[in-house]
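Write out structure tokens for RNA-binding protein 25-like.
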Amino acid sequence: MERKIRPWINKKIIEYIGEPEPTLVDFICSKVLAGSAPQGVLDDVQMVLDEEAEIFVVKMWRLLIYETEAKKLGLGK
């Protein structure tokens, strides 16, 4: 999470909002770590990211799936 996911989330939030938003990044990371469903994360970030929210959540979920599978296979060490 800290090595790959958090930096990616931070970078995307800066792209969408135009400035770092550590509180939002922490919130999204906590939702992911708590095992929230994609729709729950989408509902939470919708008002901040507006029309980019769905794209953000889809891309983030793809990254999460990739990283989870890569870890299972022992890749990326």
